[in-house]
Design goal:
heterodimer, A: alpha/beta, six-stranded mixed β-sheet, three-stranded antiparallel β-sheet, 16 helices, B: eight-stranded mixed β-sheet
């Protein structure tokens, strides 16, 4: 794998004018050396076992779920249903006690560098007009998951929704209750045997087994390999990459995949095409944990880029109950950072003015603990809110479509310019 | 109103260069100008002419009655006059057509064939529909298209109980354009002060018939009767008859009658809307509207009854605010003033300039100005300097005291009276200022009601008259449609019947366009005031709506809860069934209490029906408890009722009114 490096060095003298900073680039070998030393120092430093809630003596005040076997999920549902039956038969109606996933029940734990769920719960009684619908949906989802357990099959969230469209009305409702159910049962969503349609893709120097088949991600063509929704069937990861490159957008991913960037600088390229789904987050975490590689993120220079980055890093509020499994610690913000706009002289016509909403999101982000803990990020975000300008990764295309893969990224790597 | 004369001079100036050679310098009388540009005053086409005539008469009548603090009682009659009747009125013999092909509406043989074929087809379809039992739509018998010659004529009569006019002034009040009593800076109805004169010009243009005026003033023992038309070229009245008649009934007021060309069919709804909206904004007046024609089923008689006897005060004339005047106006004020020196002039001809400020202003004007200098001796340059200073200096805002808003009380009564809404809220803003003119925005929002269509129904009023045309660009329409998030107030913008009433009064309404039919959306002061007024109403409504929703929730709770029982029991029972299976096959062990249940499930002692029944019982119990709780919390309370209005028998009582936004306290002395 390592020998198949396709070196496609363009003529360096012809287009240095149109591709600024190209002359600053050292030879690839030199850059590789820099990277190698970084990676080796990185993997040696990150050997320590990650902290858990129990280590911080927070396990009583915070809630966390774990992977449960199918049979234990089944018994959990059964004992819950028996409880309900007792309640109904005694003429009290029935109700669920569901951990609250509202933002007031979230806690950012700096030691863990992720969001966790606090222990507040809400009671969802059947005989109340405001909760009757959700209670019924919860019962329905429980019964559906129970069936999945009995039959030992996986279905998608969409399948689940279509079992009773009339009751669920739209998929958002059944999806939300599904999260409630996994939270209530104390298991991860994957343990419920419900998966989301695959969204993420991976390409580059990675070999792994998916349901028993060996996959070589350098030989997956341009599109790469879709990230399998069942992380429990993924294993045997091997790689000679020096880092993992996390890309926000599909377009940038395609550019890098087509230019076979991973051959020039051995790496694994991953994207979830926007907001990351559970499968991609699980996959990224698994790669990071097993391969011990640094993760570098390439996102848009706007508040949403940083938000996506934070979801990978600290978890989303919606699924904070499972943040232990879903988050990937220590992701480096490689670009495009607000300071890059001037540093790389991105022309004015490629920058976009931030809307009111953008600026508000940016200011809200500045209040978030997971941003505050990183002074470099705060500085960048302040700069963004101040200049009121944003730029997408594609803004680099103003210097030529391949500027991203041929100048910008190599230069960034060479300078170890990440936060 | 001062803008009229410049318009005219400009017009004659611009005409001159066009006919460059051997052109004779022509003078145009104001009457001629308006005859040629009648669209400015709202006389665009026969239909609009009929509408504008009615509205000018109604507004004059209201002004007249309000000026003597008399509760207005106005009768408007529109009488359709068919062509033959019209011809006999003017003494023209009705002639049969001899050369049919000469006429515009002559039907050629080909066209006739086509029409007959079409009619046959339509009949066929209708027969088919009837056979299929579909609701048969009344097929409009295709009338022979009205040709250009086939004008309809109407006699418009308007009778009021107002001030009336002095006998000798009547000819000049009607027969001379741009002469009037309403000039001056105050809140006025009407658009140009042209009033009935435009109607007269239009009648002269379309029918050639004169106008009849009867009038009597309070305590006058005769009625003045005057029949006149207008000499358009000389802008002077042309009197046919001017005499005094008996006044047996001690009537005072005016009755005006004019015969004009119009179009009732197309403007029927506009005229009725106008009357209805006028009734909303003036609930203290009584209108009797009649449409009379030869075909009785087309006749309309509507009485808009009086709902209150509290009238807004008569708007008072005010002085100009220094930041609202232009150079021309300063010159006019100088020409008209009785004050001798500059100091007195500043102090007395403008609002918000006291003596100290006047002194300071004169000091600021420059060394060639002094307080004692004769105001009439000011040069043009000096006047420009004064104007510049007025523009830049800071003055207190004019107060809204000179304005006469409809008042929340009246607006509310008007809305209730005409729309019978389920809910209504009103709000009256404080006076604000735009370009030196004070304005007040009042708003009402109603939900539900009769004859109200779903969605937003917008009623706009400027200086207490309804605005019906050019709704799209108006500040009120745009605000209501785009800047109010109705959802926030639990109002459904598309489903609910929402009435939005906004009344703006000002000494100068900043109309847009020539027709003076709408207020532009570009004045942020007004847009903000309108928005906040509507929002205030919505906030009031929200709490009422929430209460109603709670009450409805009470009623529907049982049904809404019961709806979900089958789904819930199914879900629980499905799991139980599976568990019972594995329990009986000993696949899994359960605790004793649980195993007991599961055995009962397998023995069909516990079935889906058992669960349903238990859950239903529970729902009923909960519903009963909550209904009880709701009843104890809210108490048994009926909706407050609106009192009916009884007109007092003795109207001449000596009393004074104390106004508050929600009620009026009347003290009889």
């Amino acid at each position: 794998m390592a020998d198949k490096k396709k070196r496609r060095r363009p003529d360096s003298d012809s287009d240095s004018a149109s591709q600024p900073f190209k002359n600053l680039l050292k030879s690839d070998d030199q850059i590789l050396q820099i990277l190698e030393s970084f990676t080796s120092s990185f993997s040696s430093s990150s050997t320590s076992k990650p902290l858990t809630l129990a280590d911080l003596a927070l396990s009583t005040t915070c809630r966390e779920v774990s992977d449960l076997s199918l049979s234990s999920v089944q018994s959990a549902i059964e004992s819950l249903v028996l409880q309900l039956t007792h309640q109904i038969l005694s003429g009290q109606g029935f109700s669920f006690t569901i951990p609250s996933r509202s933002s007031s029940n979230q806690l950012y734990v700096p030691e863990l560098d992720r969001i966790v769920l606090k222990d507040k719960s809400t009671v969802r009684p059947f005989s109340h007009i405001s909760s009757v619908r959700k209670t019924t949906i919860t019962a329905k989802i429980l019964s559906l998951v129970h069936q999945l357990c009995l039959k030992n099959i996986h279905v998608t969230k969409r399948d689940l929704f279509y079992t009773d469209v009339k009751l669920f009305q739209d998929q958002i409702q059944s999806d939300a209750v599904l999260d409630d159910v996994s939270c209530m049962l104390g298991c991860t969503r994957s343990s419920l045997n419900v998966i989301a349609a695959e969204k993420g893709v991976v390409v580059g120097r990675l070999i792994f087994s998916d349901n028993g088949d060996m996959i070589d991600c350098t030989k997956m063509g341009m599109g790469g390999k879709a990230i399998p929704p069942n992380i429990d069937r993924v294993g045997d990861m091997q790689s000679d990459a020096l880092f993992i490159l996390l890309v926000e957008k599909d377009a940038a991913y395609i550019r890098l995949a087509e230019d076979r960037f991973y051959n020039r600088f051995p790496c694994i390229i991953v994207t979830a095409k926007g907001q990351p789904d559970v499968a991609t987050r699980l996959f990224l975490r698994k790669m990071k944990m097993e391969l011990k590689l640094p993760v570098l993120a390439l996102v848009d220079s706007d508040p949403y880029g940083l938000k996506i980055l934070s979801v990978y890093g600290c978890g989303s509020k919606n699924m904070s109950y499972d943040s232990a499994n879903l988050t990937t610690p220590d992701i480096k913000w490689l670009g495009i950072r607000p300071s890059d706009l001037d540093k790389y002289k991105i022309p004015e016509q490629c920058r976009l003015p931030m809307t009111e909403q953008d600026i508000k999101t940016g200011k809200d982000l500045l209040e978030e603990d997971f941003v505050k803990k990183n002074p470099g990020w705060v500085e960048e975000l302040n700069l963004m809110v101040k200049t009121k300008q944003k730029a997408e990764i594609q803004a680099l295309s103003s210097f030529g479509f391949q500027y991203l893969s041929e100048v910008y990224l190599p230069l960034k790597l060479q300078q170890q310019d990440w936060l | 109103m001062e803008s009229e004369s410049p318009v005219e001079t400009k017009k004659s100036k611009s005409k001159t260069p066009k006919k460059a050679k051997e052109s004779i310098l022509k003078q145009k009388s104001p009457a001629e100008f308006f005859a040629e540009n009648k669209n400015i005053a709202g006389f665009d086409n026969p239909g609009k002419c009929l509408y504008t005539t009615v509205r000018e008469f109604v507004e004059n009548a209201l002004d007249s009655a309000e000026s003597i603090s008399e509760l207005p009682m106005i009768e408007i009659t529109i009488e359709e006059i068919v062509k033959s009747k019209f011809n006999s009125m003017i003494g023209l013999v009705d002639r049969e057509r001899i050369d049919e092909a000469l006429y515009d509406d002559y039907e050629t043989a080909k066209a006739r064939e086509k029409r007959l074929a079409k009619e046959a087809k339509a009949q066929e379809i209708q027969a088919k529909n009837a056979a299929l039992g579909k609701k048969v739509k009344e097929h409009a018998v295709s009338k022979a298209a009205k040709s250009r010659g086939e004008a309809s004529f109407y006699r418009v009569t308007c009778k009021d109980n107002g001030r009336g006019m002095p006998h000798d002034d009547i000819p000049n009040m009607f027969g001379r354009v741009l002469s009037g009593t309403k000039y001056g800076l105050k809140q006025t109805r009407g658009k140009f002060g042209l009033g009935a004169k435009m109607a007269l010009i239009w009648s002269k243009m379309s029918t050639g018939l004169p106008i009849d005026i009867s009038s009597s003033m309070r305590g006058q023992n005769y009625i003045s009767f005057c029949r006149l038309d207008i000499d358009i070229h000389r802008n002077v009245p042309h009197i046919h008859l001017h005499e005094k008649r008996d006044n047996k009934d001690k009537w005072h007021g005016a009755e005006i009658q004019v015969v004009i060309e119009g179009n009732w069919t197309t403007y029927r709804s506009k005229i009725l809307h106008y009357m209805r909206q006028m009734a909303v904004i003036t609930p203290y007046s009584q209108f009797l509207f009649k449409f009379v024609s030869d075909t009785p089923d087309k006749n309309v008689t509507i009485k808009f009854a009086r709902r209150t006897d509290v009238m807004p005060p008569v708007p008072v004339e005010t002085k100009h605010h220094p930041s609202s005047v232009d150079i021309l106006l300063i010159k006019r004020l100088i020409a008209e003033t009785s004050k001798q020196n500059l100091l007195q002039f500043l102090q007395h001809e403008f609002v918000n300039i006291g003596k100290p400020l006047a002194d300071r202003l004169i000091g600021e004007m420059g060394p060639e100005f002094s307080p004692k200098m004769a105001v009439k001796s000011l040069t043009d340059q000096q006047i420009v300097r004064i104007h510049q200073l007025f523009r830049q200096a800071k003055f207190d805002d004019p107060s809204g005291d000179c304005l006469s808003p409809a008042g929340e009380y009246n607006l509310r009564l008007g809305i209730i009276k005409e729309l019978h809404p389920d809910m209504v809220a009103t709000y009256s803003g404080s006076a604000q200022v735009f370009e030196g003119h004070p304005f007040i925005v009042e708003a009402g929002v109603s939900v539900g009601g009769k004859d109200v269509k779903q969605g937003l129904n917008i009623f706009r009023f400027a200086n207490r008259i309804p605005l019906l045309f050019e709704q799209g660009g108006d500040v009120v329409t745009r605000t209501a449609l785009k800047r109010i998030s109705w959802n926030n107030y639990k109002i459904n913008q598309t489903q609910d019947k929402i009435g939005v009433f906004v009344s703006i009064v000002s000494t100068k309404i900043p109309f847009k366009g020539t027709g003076k039919e709408y207020i532009g959306d570009d004045i942020s002061e007004i847009a903000t005031a309108v928005k906040s007024a509507i929002q205030q109403c919505c906030i009031q409504l929200k709490s009422k709506i929430v209460k109603k929703m709670q009450a409805r929730e009470q009623q529907e709770r049982k049904r809404n809860l019961s709806k979900y029982i089958p789904d819930a029991t199914n879900a629980v029972y499905d799991v139980l069934k599976e568990m019972a299976k594995s329990n009986s096959s000993k696949k899994k062990r359960y605790e004793e209490g649980d195993a007991d249940i599961l055995r009962k499930v397998s023995d069909h002692l516990i079935t889906k029906e058992t669960l349903t029944e238990k859950l239903t019982q529970h729902v009923e119990k909960v519903d009963y408890e909550m209904a009880l709780e709701y009843a104890t919390q809210t108490g048994v309370r009926e909706e407050p009722r609106e009192d009916i209005y009884l007109q007092s028998l003795d109207g001449k009582g000596n009393f004074s009114d104390f106004h508050s936004p929600i009620f009026v306290f009347r003290l009889f002395l």
